Every structure is written in structure tokens, then in C-alpha cells.
Amino acid sequence: MSSKAWQQPYVNIFKHVKVEEWRRSTKEGDVAALTDKTLKSAVYRIRGCIPASNYILLPKTGTQTLGLTGRYFYLLFRPAPSKHFVVHVDVASEESQVVRVSFSNLFKEFKSTATWLQFPFLCGAAKGSVYESTARTARHGERRDRPDRTRLVGPAPASVRWTCLVLDLRYILSVYLNRHYSHLKSIRLCASMSVKNVFTSDILFDPGLSFTEAKQAGVSLQGACPMPREMCFPVPKGEDWHDLYDYIRFPSTGAKMPHDSFQRGRTSPAGSGTCRKSPVPELCRSVDLSKPVRDRISVIEQMTTPKPRPRHRAPLMTTRVPELGLPSSDAVVSDLRKSQKVQADFRTSEEEGAAKTPVASDGSVHVFARREHNSAAQDGDGETEEVVSTTVSRPLSLPSKKASKLRKLQPDPILKLKRIFGFGGRTTKCAVWTKAGDVVYPCHAVIVAMNVASGQQRFFIGHTDKVSALAFNGSSAVLASAQAGTLGVVRLWNYSRGDCVAVFKTPARSLSSLSFSRSGGVLCGVGKDKHGKTMVVVWNTQRATKGGEVAVLAKAHSDVDVHTMKIAFFDDTRMVSCGRDNIRLWRVRGGMLRSCPVNLGEYHTLDFTDVAFEEGYSADRDPEDRTLFASSGSGHILEIDYKTVAIKNVRRLLPAPQTRHQRRDKQTLSTAPGIAVNSISISSAFCATGSEDGYLRLWPLDFSAVFLEAEHEGPVTLVSISSDGLGVLAATATGNLGYLDVGTRQYSTLMRSHTDTVLGFSVDGVHRHITTASRDGTVRVWDLDSMQQLYDFVSEDTPDTPCSVAFHPSGQVFSCGSSSGTVRVFNIADSTLLAEHKQHRGEVIGVTFSPDGECMYSACSSGTLCLYNSSQEDHRILRVLGNVVARGSERGPDALSVSSDSRSLAFVGPSEYTVMVMDARSLDELLRVDVSILDAESTSLESAVRACFPPVSTGHLLVSTSANKILWLSAQTGRLLREVSKVHTQQCSSMSVSEDGRFLLTAGHKAVKVWDYSMRLDVNAQVFIGHSQPIQQVAFTPDQLGVVSVGDAIYYWDFLAHQQESASERSSPSLTSSPPAFKPGERVERRRRSAAIGRFGRSFSDARRSEAERTDTPTRSAPAGSRELDVSMLARCDGTPRKAAPLPSSSPPCLDAGSSHSPDHEALDTLSLCEDTEDTELDTPPPPAGGSFLRVTDMVAKDDQRTRTNGLRTATAVPHPGDEQRDRSPVRPDAYRHFTPRFKMFSQAQCAAAPPAGQEGLLLKAVIGYNGNGRGNMVWNPDTGLFAYSCGCVVVVEDLHTGSQQHWLGHTEEISSLAVSNDAQTLASASAGRGGSQSRICIWDVRDAARKNTMSYHKGEVQAIAFSRDDLLFVSVGDYTDLRVALWSTGTYQLLSSIAVPEALHDVGFSPTSAGHMTCVGSAGATFCFLQSRGQNVELKVHRVPVPEQVGEVELTALCYSTESILYTGTNRGHVCAWECATTRCFMSWEADEGEIGVLLCRGNRLMTGSNTRRIRLWAVTAVRDFQLGGHTPRSSQDRSVSVLMEQEMTLDGTVASAAFDAAMDIGIVGTTAGTLWYINWVENSSIRLISGHRGRVSSVVFSPSEKHFATCGEDGSVRVWSAPSNELVVQFQVLNQSCTCICWSALLSPDRGDQRVAAGYSDGTLRVFRIATSEMELKLQPHQVTVTAVQCSAEGQVLLSGGKDGLVAVSSPLTGMTVRVITDHKGAPLSTIQCVTKKHKEFGLEGSEMWLAASADRRVSVWVSDWTQDRCELLDWLTFPAHCSHEEPGSLPPSLGAFCPCDPGVVLYTGYGAEMELSFYSLSKKQFTRKIALSHWATCLSLSPRSRLVAVGSNERLLKLIKTTDGKFQDFPTHSDAVQVCQFSPSGRFLFTSAYNEIFLWEVKGL
Q1: What does each C-alpha distance from 1617 to 947, 1484, 1621, 1626, 1666 come to in angstroms?
Q2: What is the 3-state secondary structure (H, E, C) of 1467-1500?
Q3: Which one of 19, 171, 314, 1086 counts the least CB within 10 Å of its CB?
């Protein structure tokens, strides 16, 4: 320590070596000392054309050393303009290795060797120069498109500035060479440059921070320290350091700065993310500004001016930090050895609706053990080995006593994975032999071990992404596997046991190659780091199998390309690699990984694909005396002497393909050019090669001729010779895997696979075949038992992708529907095409046969349904119906479901909200159920996803919905019987029910679930994972003994429930006296075949039975003749009572409605409705004989009344703690502080076609408005300047200096609250989930403006969120529907603990003096929470304290802490209570307001209150602390001895919803429910609007013709005019007690054309004209007696046209105010659109200068030609559009919208409610429709771009759709949180306005 003490705090190297004397330093060439004018100090100038001949060397000779140990190297220099320079820094490592670190603007790219690192230097330029703008543009493009960075490297610009360069030497050596920094040895500064000085230090200095500023700001010296005087550059007063000089730090703290070059970044030295500015304000230029702009500038100056920070802060007292304990390695290994087989790794049990809490649903606690990653860069004094893993591969399960008492689905597990059809996924270059002759290969995320002889498979499951590499050790005892993706993970497996013994992260992102040493002690991997550079890592795995850890032996970065790397079998420390242009030999020695290239000579340009060592062992040979074989893409094979590293021989193999008769001859090396060799494998006797032409070839070791070959369908990507040399494994790029038996010369295919996602399947139960359709364009037929592919069907049409397949129930026939709409029927027996139908216009989303085999059905994405006669060979079409199936392709491949009696067909349609049941023979409608209205209390609409028929005996119809539910409906009446929520984490994509009706099978995302169909158990489901991609379809096999699921591959599972029952039946003496003797393994297979034959043998006879005969067969789930119970008033399965069940709509006729009801079946048996419902017998009268739906409606009404008297009840599961509070309907607290979302009629569209990143046709440019409905949804940090608020579902981050905005999109619902961490680097936003699902909390990185995590826990809204004082914890509180508090860790954002509370909570906050204490306030008083960590568990200890009686019966609504451990709470009666945190007692209260206090803030001795009286008040609370120390009893406001004084008061425009103030409580921002954000200055007692918006719904938005202004109006009665592009409010016109419904920019005749006006229509029938220049109302007209619904100024401005709610169109003069004409043609229907255009109309035979149209709600459009100067107005055309009869109110139907096409005013565009959802183009000249474009939703607003052929359409489903009218191309933008009611292009077409409720979005139009 004494030798290093003199080097603190820094070392001036020039002074240390006395450079001016040149005794301990050397100068060479043109080196001179001079005085620099900028620095006004002496500097050294180094000039010369050759840098190596002109330099300064420190110290004098290379044998000397500086011996400086400072971590940071500072160089103060200025590159010579238009010249190059070079700097060499020699550093020594603790391993006694000298490494040279060089940087120069001569270097074009980064290069590295074991002893030299070369970095390119990117010179900066003066601020505002052309070079700086060019460099900034280039860097921006580099981040997006990754161009060549060399264009930025070159001579320094003419305006280059003095630079302070800081190098972190410890980091550079650790990251790039894996070495530990010791000291600085020498420095060489080469021409051309000027140098002031060189320093070293262990402290990071900030050049922009002076000692005075640091002292005033209170910056800790442990972070950024001010620059010492010797290192400072002069800064004139009032200037900023960073505006005059450059600061470059390597590595940069900016996340987006490249790590392979030195260049100026945007971050401050301390890494805080912002550069510190001087506190001296800059002088402003004198300019003329409007008042709003002046107000905003003054606000910004006051808010951004730094204030002196208080010197004394409250200490942060952390009594105990919660930790998750890690089990020891020995305990983990012991647990792993006692664990189950590998199938248990991917099977879990889950309670219905259970939350994702740390406590598992089976009653056990899962603890994930993970070791943090420690690199040498973090700890320079650490060991040389780097611990990167633990041996834990799965969570440890701690048994629970409660779990054993739960009734679970049995057997457990009920599924067992038996076979996987598939190979590859990430790569097809990965398959290995075992010593025993088995083959191990990956299938996406699963590793499969196959016995070659029997075909039996074993599975290794644990990876979460596709497997990219495999490797065995020499004995095949340990298997290593790596997975692809950004999370580089390697797993080590015990192959014999099949369990994972170690899992660890890798420094590389994705490993492409793995190699195990023969001993198994060393593992080598090759991949890419996060910068895309090649990385080689070597691990020590000796202790892995014994419970030890895996450590990094060495790692290295390389610029060369590496395809393959292998460890030498004779030496664990030696490796060899090959790649493009290189073959390298590697060796690990002394913790270093070094490489040596092979001199390739003339072959240095080849692409080498694989390497292999010569096999065999000889006692008289040196182990290194080996030959290395390398294959190449040109056909060359190089033989390299490993010992001498020299090429011995070069051969060229594999001549080009020849004719068939020539190919029979043996090939030699002397023919024709070669082709690519992809893989090579060497044995002691021969060599195997796999090539691009699809051939596997075997050669002798001298490669004289081919002696055996096998041809494949695609390029051979892998060859591998078995250890005994008798088998050669081969893999192809087409997904085939096989092997060649060398002895018998026979080739066997082990596995074939689809090369893309499997979309659908169908199983032939008779022949045990399965057919699959894939996105790779093929349909394949497989044998279900042998896994062999039998047939392959490929369409001749390239883009024609098969989408859905179905087997005929008895014949060898299957049908296939494709993306082109074609339906084909194939005969497998003779491989012929039986029929081909092209009735569909869209993608086929479902084909199916009826169980009796007589009918076939198909449906497409355009809504068409077809019925075929499948009893005939040509499958003749019987009927085609259009627009009956819901549009869209997301419901494929099983969009259709046929009942087991072949009498009914069910599907989702005609809209996404309805399910339709049709007669299967005639396609007549039987039933229609609207699922969107079944949930009476839901605030959003649910759409149907799938419909499925269980066995007909149940009488049910299952429907899965977009809200992640499954509904049990009556198949006869459509009444809701039961529902299950939260079926999967995502939507249920497929369903299937067992034939006995006992089990339900569902698929969602990547999981398969098996459910108890009756839902009577405590744990009704079991979950099975294994797929790496979303599952497309799942179903039981016809014999009910298996389950098939498809997605990334084909998974075949054994269904164990029926197998166990089969075994018990066979052992029963009552069934048979002498059971047949089966061979082992044959029992199940024979039963499968007999069961299948029996089932289909019965199907034809059953189809001819009468209905009464079929219903006589009893089943376990429902006795014969049973019908559904009336459940309209039964409680739902989540415990909420249903008040009234809506009736399903249906068509009047019902075919054979009474034929299925036998008179013998009058009594109704009981039916289970929910999980624990007791059987109850009800006396229900029999249904009427002539049952029509009118009569059913009458019956439902009577049943509803009867159910009210019976009072049936249901019991529900308890998935979350605290759900017992939900047994009664929740009641919203009487407190405005409690967040309540706006009611929304429609939910967000589920099927939005979001544009690809970077190809968006619209870019969100600005958001206008603030969501005043939120609570605490605005944050401002005065230290960093962070200012963020929410508007709808968008987080807006605004720069107060420039007014620019960032928009963070991650929510789908209205954001309720925001919270920012104390360091202002993390922002949290909370909202409800999509469609009523779990809430959504997004965590944002402020620096990167990126979302880094998303959490979901609460079932309702999130009421409040907060960070702890040390930012280690995060808390969220649910609203009154979800009475829970959740505590999260900010390190992993995993749930630590949660508690249930008895009453609603309103606010939450952490103590500023203790990290483990927080408080919640609500209806029941104050809840004090204390965090306790007990081993692996984190608990919240709760202490609830009621409000003192002296205060009265109140609710606590808000809270805040003071720095003196005092808690202030506000009440709904206006009181403020003061609490002592230590004793949790309320010692004081006073009446602070007359209304409810919703916002409290405390800064020092000042307290601010905000209430619903619109007032904010500032209080002096100095006496509160004195009163607390006095220990008096609680005092009230009447106690005059308490000196709590109100200093100031302000009244705002609405209830206070959010607030943020600086540390002194002088300035701040306050948000109100009026949608306004106010700047508050208590010192000046002033308030200024920062952000303002409409309080209610926005009715219209229009641009001025010049686009310098735009105007908005809303239901709040205001008309607001804004300036563009600053979006500042210029003027506001307010009309009280009226709603402004429409607006237009008036081009009135005036001498001054720039004097613009706005005309607005109101709900009282008036028109008002406002003049912008004078801010006055110029004219008021009353042309209507009802609400004005549309207004438009004529093209020349002579008249105003307005439409009313009564359908009258008034023509008014803006000069006289008189109504000159009334048009009554639309009378009776409200006008929705009026538009005027300028056009001569002689072609129509009419005189006029302009044309206008009017559209009304009755779907009529009138087009007029007018000349207002001549008082002429004539009707040109009248359009009427048909529509279905609707019983809805006219106001609830979609509006009728019409517009002229800007490119051709003679064409009218119309959309509205009608027969189809579409855009119709009507030509006025041709008198006909010329084009129609289909829509996915009804349009609510419409606008056409004047510049391009684009149309913007808004919908109630919150969707903005941009459509190109020429080809129908479109993009969807689901950005709004409510229905899109307004969309309007600007006159130039460059911008687009959209509005939903009160949120206004401005888009920049990029085009499609």
C-alpha cells in the first residue's frame, strides 16, 4: 500500500518524468513546446508525415517502466487538423504479460491479438459544424442499418477540438483478453497531435463539474469528482465545458455506443445518463413570442434551473435487505438425483385460475437457485477461474402438507411423451452417436435420444429455446447442449439417468459449436458476443458431474470467422477450428487461450466447413504427430500436419454431377470442378463426406475413389462415423436424418421432418396414420407407430400453402385446404387426387368430415362455408354460404366442429362475437349465441375463438373466448351453464373432449392442459410443456389412448387415464375368463386397433338409428334424455352472481326442433355446473312440442323468475390470497382518489396487422392531452429533468427544453398510475390487462427509452405503485376489485410476497428512512407493513391501525412521509393526520380542506395538499415535529396551541389528480381531472398551463389550409386553436352548458386572406364563427332547432352548409347570418358527413363551380352541384345502400360516411352499416361501383389523403387502419385506448390526426 499511496489521487506523468528535461523521456522528430491560444498554457506539438518517426516516449527506453497502477488513463490532447495520429499504451497484467493498447484515426476497424489491441478513433468536431452533423447522421444510420463504420474514420476535421480521453485499462484487459490489469508500463505519443498532459488515477473525474458546483450540489466524491486544476481546460464564464471541448470515455456508459472504437458519446462521465450543465443561465436572444410561448419558456427556465440541495438529508436506514437464499451445491445435486424421470421436467400441475405466485399450485414452493455472473472486469483481485454456473437445472420442490389433501386429476401425470416426429429446428448440423450405438439429435427445444434398432425415443427437456449444438465426452456419459437466442445457456446432462447436472450462462449470445474433450473435463464453445464478434470460451467441467461448479478456463475474442471447433482427442488443452479463409490451432495455457493460424498459401480464400483428426493410436508415434483433415466449400480437402502446422497434401473431391450411366463408374479426383463439402468424418479405415449435391460418400483414406455413396433429397449438412466404424450418420438441410450400415450397405431413414411450422393434423384411427399440413408447403402422411413418412404431397403452385387437413372417418381419404382457397381430396391408397374445389376466396381455416362420413365441410377466412357430399368420390358441392363464418385466419386449422351424432355443425360467425350452430345436412341455422353479452358485468366485449362439440350425450357446446375463458353452453338453447377463466396464459388455440366426456384437452401458446371435464376437483388440470413454438392444434387420437399436439414438430403423447382403466378391465374376471396372451409391448397396440375398428364399425349403423335409440345409451356425465338446467341466475365460476343472463339471438325457423325430445324424457336429471356445486333436483316442465325460439325466450323469462326464488349457489376455487373477499360483489369506495377507468363499449381488436419494425406507414409524432382520469399518472424529477405523464395507454416523456416527445407503447388499456425510481433511471406504468385479463405493469429504462420488463398479477386495475427509497423494492396495490398488495424485487422483478387486505386501499408509500417499511392507506385506516426475510421466504408483517375516534368516521385517501419519520395522511373529509412511524400512532390532526384530500407531498417542513375542491394548499408544519417530541396525546384542528399554518393557496381548473415538486417545494407540476398539467410557482404565487386538453370526448379535429394551425372541439363545449408544429394552445373559445359537435376552418370572403376564422356547430342548434386574430366570436347563427351534426364551408367561402340531427341541411350566409336555403331530402335521419370540393361539372350536363355531398344515418348519400353566386344548387346523384334488418337503436349502428376521392372528385367513397364491412368506390360518371375493399371492422371515421391514394379508417375496436386504395395493402395501429372517433388528414397529406375520447394523436404519414 505504501508504494501506491503517493499515486493518490492522481499522477501528473509529464511532471513525474520531468518531460521538459528529456532525461527520463524521449522525443524523436518534429516535437516542440509552444503556447496554445485556446488553453493559454504550454503544450507539446508533434508533427511529421510518418508517425513512427515523430513521437514522445515515456519513459526513456523500452526496458524501463512507469509502474503506475491507476485504473484510468487520462490523455489531454488535440489531433492535428486534416492529419492522422497514433497513440500506443503498453500495460502489464498480473500474469506478467505486456499488452499494447493502440488507438488511431488511421485504423479502419478493431483488431486484436493476444498481445495487441487496436482501436479506431473517431474524431469529434466543433458543435454545429458540418462534420458533426454528418457524423451524427452516420452514427444514427449505423444503429439502424449497420453500414460500414470506416466512413467516419479518417483525418481529423478542421474544426477538431481539444479532447479529454479516459481509458479504463482494467476493463479493456479483462473484457478483451481475460487478463487482470497490473500497471502502466510505457506511453508513445506519435504525430500528428498536440498534447497538454497525461495522467493516471483510480478516480473518475468529470471535466464539466467544478469544485464549487460539486459542493453546492452535494455530489458524492465516490461517484463523479470535479476535475483537478492541473487537468482542467479553461472555460469562460457563462459557457459550458462540453460546448467547447470533447470528452471521450472508453468504455462508454451509453448502451448504444459501439465497444470497438473510441468516439464521443452522449453520456456524462459518471454514467448518469445526462451531462451536467453549468448553473449560470445562458443569455437569450431578443425575439417576439406569443404569450403562451413566453409563459412556457419562463416555466422551463424556472423548472430546469438547478437549486442548491439541502446539505443534510435523512439517512437511509436499511435494517434488513430481503434475499432469496440459494441452496448449496451438494443439496441441489442430492435433490436432482432423487428427482423423477425426464418426463417430469416438463409436466406441472396447476390449479384452475391460479396466480403466478412463488407458491406452486400443488402446495409446494419452487425455489430457483441462480448464481450471479462475476467477470474479471468487476473484481480485479478475483481468482483466475470464473464461476459461471451452479448445478441446479430445475426448481427444488419443498413438500407441503396441504398439498396431500387436495383432490387432483388422476393419474398424475396423465400424459407421457412417447414420440416426437421431427429433427432440427435451429440447425440440421447437429447429431451425435453414443458408444452404445444410439443417435442423439435436437428437435427444436427438445433433445431426443433414439435407439437405432427399435426406434424408441428418450427425451431431454429443459431448454427454453431451440438447441443449437450438442457434444458428448469420450465415454458418452456426459452430454453437453447449447441453446440459441440472446440467452446463451449450456446444459450438461447425465446421459444414462437423463437428468441435467449443470446449467450455466455463456458470455457468447448463441453458441454454434460445442466440443467435449475425451475425458469430459474440458468443454469448448464458439459463438458471438453482443457486438457480433466471434468468441471462443473454454470451460472446466471436471467437477460438474460430482456436484461441483463449471468454471471458465479461458475465453478469447477473434476477428476471424469460425464455423467449427473441436478439441483434440489426445490433449484436452488443444483445439482446432476452421471457418472462412482460416484454419487455426488453439491451446489453453496459464489461463490464456492462444491461437496459431495455419499458413494456407494459395488456399487462403477458401471457405472451410469442417475439420477432423486422424484416428488411431501408435506407441511409436508422438501424440501430436497427427494429420488434420479440413473440408471446404470448393471441394478441396486439406491434409495438415498438426505438429509442424504445415499443409501435407491437397485434394479436390466430388466432381460435378454426371449422366446416369457415367455415375455408375467410380469417381476420381481428376475430373471436373468440385462442389461444396459440408461435413467430413474420419475413422481408422475410411473417410465420410457430405456434400451440397445431396450425396453421402465413403472414401479410402487416400481418397483414390468412392467405394460407397447414398443420395439424399437435399444437401447433406452432417456426417458422423460411429465409434465402431460400422455406421455413418447423415443429416440433410431438408430435415432428414438417417444412417448407412457399412457392413450391409443399406441405408435407413431414422427421421424426417417438416422444415417449417406444422399448422394442422388429422389421425386415421383405422390404419393408424396421421396427416399433417405445414407452412413449408407440404402435406405428409406418417405411420403413427413407426414414425416413418409414408406419403408426401406438394402443391405445384409455389405460394399455395396447406392450412388444414382432415381424414375421412373410415376410408383412406383425406382432404386438405390451402391458403389459396383450394380444397383438395386425396386417396392415399393409390395416391390420386379425387377432387379439387376452388369455391373459397380466402385461406381455408377448417376442413372436417362428419363422423358418419357422409358430409364434408370447409370454411375460409373470407367467411364462406361449403358443404360437400363425401359419400361420392367427386365430393360434389351441395351448398355454399357466404359471410357466415367469422372473417380472419386466426381460427384455423379447426374452425369447424361437428357433433358426434353428425347432426349439428358449430363455428364462430358471422361476427367474431357470435357462435352459430347449423343443421349439418342442410346448413340451416339452428342457434346463434352472442358470447360478448354473456358476461353482464364485463366492461369490454369478448370474442369467440373456438367452438367445440363434446359428446352429444352431454348436451353441451364449448366455446373458448378472447378473455381466456372456456364457456359451457347448452347445445339446444345456447344458455350459459358454466365458465372457466384463465385457462392459459394466452388464448386457447385448440380444444378436444374425450369420447366418454370425462376429460377436456386444451392448448394455449406452448402448453397443453388436460382438465377434468366436470370441474369437480380441487386441482382440475395438469399442464405439459415441451413445445418451443405456439401450439397450432391438439386432439385425442380416435382410440382415446393417445394425444397429438403440433406446432414446431409433431408430439405424440400416451394418455394414461384410459390405459390404466384398460388394464383394470382386462384383469377383471367378469369381463373374460381367459384373457389372450399378448407378447410384451403388444397389449396396448392391439387394444388400440380393436377399439378403432369397433368405433368406426358402429358409426355407419348409428347414423341410421332413430334419435330415441341413440339417447337410450347412458353415459357417466349425463343420463339418458338429460337436458340443460336453467342457469341464467346461477353464480359464475369466479364467484360473481349473474343478475340477468342475456338471451342468445337465433333465426325464426328451427328444423326438427322437437324431434330430439322424447316424451319419455320429461324429468330433468341433475347436471354439475361448477366445481363444487351440490346436485340439486329441479322441477322443470317439459319443453313444448313445436319448440320455436320465441317460445324458448318465454321459457327463459319464467326460469329466471323461478331461479330467483330457488337461490342456487356455486362454490369457486381460491386461486389468489384474498379472493375470499370476492364472494360478495365489490363496492367501489366513496373516494375520488380511487381510480375508476372510463367505461368503454368495445375492447381492443385481437387480430391487428401490426406493421414490421421500420416499415410503419405512420409514425406517432405528438400526443396532445393529459389523462385527467388517472391517479398519480404524472412524474417529474427536478434533478434529471425527467417529465412523463400518461395519455390513454401511452406514456409520454416530454423534454421541457425543446417540447419534443417520446412515446412509450406497451399498454392496451388506460394507464392508471406512474412511478419513477429515486435515481430517475426507471419508470413504472400500470394499467388493466386486455379484455379484463390480469393487470399489466411495464418497467421502462429511462436512458434507453425501452421496456425492460412486464409484470402481471392483479386481477383488476392497479390503484397505486411505488419504489422503495433504495430502489431495491417495488410495490403495487390492486383496486377495490382486487384487494391485494404485491411486493416485487427490482433486480429480477419477480414477486417476493403478497398480502390480502380486508378493505380497499387508495395509496401506498415506502418510508424514506427504512427500506423495509411501507404504509398503505384506505377504507380501514392505515396499514403498516414491515418486510421480513426468513431464509428463502420473504414475508410482509402487517399492522393495521384505525383512524382515531377524534377524527371521526373517515377514509384515509393519501399519504406522504417526512424526513423526520412522520407519516402524513389525508382523509375524504379534508383532514390531515400526523403519525409517528416508530409507534404507529396518530398524534395530531387538523382540517386542511373542505373536501377530500387526494394528493399529499412533503418537502422538509412544508406540506402540500390537493383536494376535489380544486384547491392546492401549502402548509408550514414545523410545529408538528416539536409537538411529536413533546409526546402529547392526539390533538385536533381546534387546538390553537398547534401552529400549523397555511402559507399559500391556489385554485385550479379541476380536482387534483397528481403532483410533483422540487426539494424545496418552490416549483412543481400539478395535474387535474380537467386534463391539464399546471406549472406551480409558490414563490411568485403563479400557475401556468403546461399541458392542456379537452375534458370530455373530442368531436372533431381540422387543420387550417396553411397547416400553421389546427382546431379541435369537444363535448366540453370548447373550441381550441393550436399552433403547429409546436402544438401550443393559441386561443380557446368556451360555450357553457353546450357541446361542440363539429367544426370547420372557414375560408370566408375577406379583404385579408390571412384573417382566418373557425365555424363550429353546437348541441343547441347554433353555429358560431370565431375570429382567430382577435379571439372573438364574430357571428352566431341558429339554422337548426336540434343538434348540429356536421358543418362545412363551401369551397369559395360564400356559404356555410350545416346538417342537423333531424336530417335537414341548412345553407347559411356567413356575412348576414341568414339561412338562405333548407334542403329536406335527408329529413328524418341524422346527417353524419358534409363535404365540399371545387370541380367543373359540364361532363355531367350541369352548371356549377363546386360539388358537395351529404351522408345520413339511413345509409343514403346525396351528391349536389352548386354555384352559390348564382344561388344554384342541383341534385347530381342519389345513392342508397342496403343493409340487414337490425333491432338495435339507430344511434348504436356504425355511421354512414362518404367522401370525394381527392385524386378524382368524380368518385365517391362510402362506408357504413350494410351487408358487408367494406369500402365502396362509386363513379358518378359511370353510375356504378368501380371497386370495393373489405374491412375487418365497422368504420367509425374516415379520411382520404390528398397527396397519395391512402385512406385512414377508425373503428370502435380501437383500431386505426391505413389502407392503400390501389391494391388493398393495409397496416393496423392499435395505439388508442378507446374507440377511434376522429381521423383527419392535413391538406398536404403529410400528417394525420386521430382522436379517441379526449386523447389526440398526431401522426406523420410515411406511406405504404
Answers
A1: 51, 49, 12, 6, 10
A2: ECCCEEEEEECCCCEEEEEEECCCCCEEEEEEEC
A3: 1086
Strand partners, 525: 514, 537
Cα diameter, the chain: 120
pLDDT at residue 666, as a whole number: 45
Read off the DSSP letter of residue 121.
Answer: B
Structure-block grid coordinates of residue 401: 402438507
Assign 3-class secondary structure to 1508-1523. CCCEEEEEECHHHHHH
- Distance from C-alpha of 1477 to C-alpha of 1422, rounded to nearest angstrom: 11
What are 563's three cell numbers? Answer: 464455423
Closest CA to 587 of 600, 601, 597, 599: 597
Q: Which amino acid is at 1828?
A: K
| Residue 1721 vs residues 674, 1702, 1757, 1759, 1760: alpha-carbon distances, Å | 82, 11, 10, 11, 12
- What does the block give as the cell for 644? 509442424
Cβ(1336)–Cβ(1350) below 8 Å: yes
Residue 1134 burial (CB count, 10 A): 20
Do 1635 and 1658 touch, CB atoms closer than 8 A? yes
Q: Which residues of 1480-1507 are buried (b: 16+ CB within 10 A; e: fewer)?
A: eebbbbbebbeebbbbbbbbebbbbbbb
| Residues ≥6 apart with Cβ < 8 Å to 15 | none
Residue 623 confidence (pLDDT): 66
- State the cell numbers at 52: 513512427
Q: Which residue type, as a one-letter code, is found at position 453?
A: A
* Of residues 671, 717, 672, 721, the one with CA closest to residue 694: 717
| 3 state SS of 291 | helix
State how far the Cα of 376 lies from the Cα of 507, in Å rounded to an integer: 12
Q: What would the pLDDT profile of 520-531 be if each residue is shown by its tens digit?
A: 899 999 998 888
Q: 1159: burial class by Cβ within 10 Å (0-12, 13-18, 19+)?
A: exposed
277 φ/ψ angles, rounded to the nearest 5 degrees:
-95, 160
Q: CB under 8 Å to 1784, separation ≥6 — which residues?
A: none
Contact 1474, 1485 (CB under 8 A): yes
pLDDT tens for 989-1032 read 899 999 888 999 999 888 999 999 988 888 889 999 888 889 99
One-letter identity of residue 1415: T
737 phi, psi to nearest 5 deg: -135, 130
**1243 touches 964 (CB < 8 A):** no
Amino acid in position 1176: T
Give the whole-angstrom CA distance, residue 8 versus residue 72.
Answer: 12
Map residue 1329 onto helix, strand or coil: coil
pLDDT score, position 642: 84
Strand order across the beta sheet in which 564-567 lies? 564-567, 574-579, 582-589, 592-597
Q: What is the Cα–Cα distance from 703 to 668, expressed in whole angstroms? A: 8
User: Given this model, what pLDDT does residue 1882 score?
Assistant: 92
Its pTM surpasses 0.90 = no
| Cβ–Cβ < 8 Å for 1875, 1836 | yes
CA nearest to 976, candidates 951, 998, 953, 959: 959
Q: Which helix (H) or strand (E) holds 649?
A: strand 646-652
Amino acid at 1071: L
Cα–Cα distance for residue pair 1363/1357, rounded to 1 Å:
18
Burial class (CB in 10 A: 0-12, 13-18, 19+), 946: buried
pLDDT band at 1311 (very low <50, low <70, confident <90, very high): very high
C-alpha cell at 671: 475430373
Phi and psi at 1113, nearest 5°, equal -80, 115
The radius of gyration of the chain's CA atoms, rounded to the nearest angstrom, is 39
| Site of grid cell 513525474 | 16
Enter the C-alpha cell of residue 1390: 419477480
Indicate the helix (H) or strand (E) that contains 1524: helix 1518-1526
